[in-house]
Design brief:
There is one protein chain. The chain has about 160 residues and is α+β, with helices and mostly antiparallel strands. Helices cover about 50% and strands about 15% of the residues. It folds into two domains: about 35 residues; about 110 residues, Trna Endonuclease, Chain: A, domain 1 (3-Layer(aba) Sandwich). The mean pLDDT is about 90. It is built from five helices and four strands. The N and C termini lie far apart (about 85 Å). The chain has a four-stranded mixed sheet, with helices on both faces.
Amino acid sequence: MNIKFGVLTAALITLLIAAIIILIIRKLHNSLYPYELIECAFTKNEIGVYYKIFEIADELDLEVFPKMRLADICRVKRGTKDYYRFFSKIMSKHIDFVLCSREDYSFVLAIELDDRSHERKDRIKRDRFVDNVMKACGLEILHITNTNDLERKIRERI
C-alpha cells in the first residue's frame, strides 16, 4: 500500500510540475509573440469595393493587388542621403488597391478607398504624403469614396 501511495504521489507531483512548466512556457511564448489573427483581410466595405474593382480590372486585362505597401511599389533613390529616414516613411504605409498589367505586372494605377477615417487630420496628412510619393514615382492615384461610376474613373486614369 505504501509503495502504491508513493508511486501515485510521485506521478501527481510529476504531473503538477509538468503543468506548471507548460504554463510558464505558454506565458513566456505569449509575451515574446503577443500576436493574434485578424478576423478578415478586409472590412465589409473593402470587400464590396474589391469585387467591383476586380470585375473592372478583369475587363481591362489588369490584376488587382490589395493592401500593397508603398515600399513594394516604390523605393528610395540610390545615393539618397538619410536613406533609412526616407525608407521608414514608406515601409509601413499601404495603398488599398493597386492595378497592374497582366502582361508584365507593371504598375498601372493606385486606388485609395477614402472612408470616414480619411477626414481626420492625421489621415489627411498621411494621404497628402502618399499622393506626393505617388506623384514623385509617376504612378497615378485615384481616391474613391464609393463604387459609383468607378469604371469610368479608372478608364480615365489609365
